[in-house]
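haha ok so turns out i had the wrong file open the whole time. this is the CORRECT one, sorry everyone. sequence first:
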Amino acid sequence: MSEPDRSQSVNADEAPQSARVAADAHIDQLLKGAIGTGDESAYSFAWLAIQCARIPGAATGLILLRPPAGQTPVLSATWPQHNLDLPELSSVAHRAYSERRTVVGLGRTGPASSPAQSVGLLVGVPLGEGGDPIASTAVALTITGGTTLISPENVTERMRWGAGWLEALSQARQSKELSANVTQAASCLDLVAVVAQQTGLHATAMAIVNNLATQFDCDRVSLGLVKRNGGVRVRAISHSATFKSEARLVDSIASVMEEAIEQSAPVTFPALPETNRVIAMAHRTLAEMAKAPTSSAASVILVDGRGRSVGVVTLERHRAPPIDSKWLQRAEAMAALIGPVVGLHLRNDKLLAGRAIYGLSEAVAKLAGPRRPALRLAVLAVAALAAALLFAQGEHRVTAKSVLEGEVQRAVVAPFDGFVQSAPVRAGDTVKAGTVLAALDDRELVLERQRWRAERDKLVQKQREVHAKHDRTNLVILDSQIRQAEAQLNLAEEKFVRSRLVAPFDGIVTSGDFSQKLGSPVEKGKLLFEVAPLDSYRLIVHVDERDVRYVVVGHRGTVALAGVPWTPLPLVVTKITPVTFAEEGRNSFQIEARLVERTAGLRPGMEGIAKIETGQRSIVWIWTRATLEWVRLAAWKYLP
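then structure:
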């Protein structure tokens, strides 16, 4: 080929290539613009146009997108024009989506309404990662000369290469939903901040209705409080300092609120899918009073922290757009936040403390007055009873928590670093002396023992050979090496024996459980089990530091253990430890006691309540001692 002919051929090839690049750039611009505006239909069409333009012989195409809520895909776009009727192509796309695989078949390539139809190859491809596709697309390929210009496998590969743009659409959906949730949360926090600044019930109610009217762009927001008889009293209307002159409107709003309270559910007019089963007659009447064709109203219930309905918020909008499901969901979220605040202000508004003081002063005045002699006699009787109790004597007992422990506890520790091979015993099991508690992995020990035995045998054989040669120098060296090998062998034998951890005596395992940790590593010296005998116990009593001064060695008492609460056991104090221990925010002393009698069923670790008898005291002193000591300590702390 001559040089001019080659130049003309190159120019001829570059012309379609430049036109294709320009078309792709235009479609890319459409794709970016569609994702920026949130128009999923335009976005899908632009994506489908890019894919079909790069598939040779593509006649028509369509794309099905899975909606945000649901699993059945819906038609999003068709190519080369919008809204084409492609039933066979749509059937292939649905089949590819449901079967999660590429579907190939023969069918018509054009719309169903087209008079001239041609038969082509229909290729359906599911798009998305894993077994849950996000979309499905189908392309009709023209058959030329009994075959297509591109194979179905190449169509599938090209479609899946472009699936990332559809995943970006799914992420754009999630970003939009997240942005809406953040906006809703910010609005709720703004409302809580405004309400928290108010000090009274009326001011709080006015702040709530005014803020809600602004946030929800409502014409009127009302707040009512539930009365004892079940009715509702309107306490605040947005942007209205007083509303007594509008009696008819206030009665209508109260009826609307009572309608929501009686049904214990939010009510809207017009009805939404969430509220289509509730009665909204009062809401219809209130909306019709506005005399606007697009009027709508909704009521949500305020619930306090105890789950009781304390009020209702009614929101009205007299213009488009009407109330929708997202709007109602946002209103319910805000009602859930402000309900406990309204309930708290409602309780504080009743002035219970003031009424209690007034009732106490009235009772004192009646007692000092000339009337009600029976009341005075009752007071004198109570005083006489208090005097009698003041001089009555009773047994003072120090009550404290107690724990039953074994008199001797033996620790079973790991003799060397290793791994747990078996652990047939765990905490709570009763064992005999010599019972295997756990076994460590001994495979390395067996190998080490065999290695040193072989080393010793080899040295012994070598010693015999040297002895036959009468080489005294090497004989001395080999003798020391043999002793070293035997020492290592004895060590390996000893470690092999100690790999079996056994119980030192008859008793109960108080701690340690490796039945669920087989194969886990243990370090040398790590505590694996604790064993305590079954025939000797001691009782540890945790006495508060305020009561320890009344206890001395030799005092008697009783203890009721949780395991045998029906059998109190006598005890004798044997030792008072002069060291404090922090427990539950208080200092306590550990006092050791001995059980005078034993009963069946005792186990180390049982807890109970011990009462130590410290002598006779006044009953009033016993009852009031703790309070008087606290008052005395507080006075010492704060008085100069």
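The chain is about 45% helix and 25% strand.
again sry for the mixup
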